[in-house]
Design brief:
149 residues, mainly beta, globular, DUF2141 domain-containing protein, DUF2141
Amino acid sequence: MRHGSRAGRVLAAASAAALLGGAAPPDCRLDVEVHSLRSSEGLVHLCMTSKPDHFPECEDDASAYTATVPAAATVKLRFTNLKPGRYAIALLHDENGNGKVDKTLMLPREGFGFSRDAKIRMGPPSFESAAFELDSAHEKQRITMRYLL
């Protein structure tokens, strides 16, 4: 094929379109490290959502990412093939493994944590305070488990 031919120009235009946004965005990977668990008893439940109205429970969010793993001194989770976007993570250290947040006088008796180590005030943090951008091929979140009682 000679330089400047119609076929060469079409091929060059198609390649440029792919490089300039014609291609699908790459899938992302997220590593989550959870530390400061007070025991290795029970389970750690994680939910990650991109929808502020479904944070922190992720209830009725079909697009939420969830995981449940055995508790350990440090818990490490890896999510792959994630779509780029803005997400927030909520964690529960379900020490007795009953699948719910146990409370005393409205305060959680079990551990919890949030992405960006978002602080709690009079309830869970807002989506915005826990949200992070997942826009690169590899993102990390280190989350401290907290206990009130």
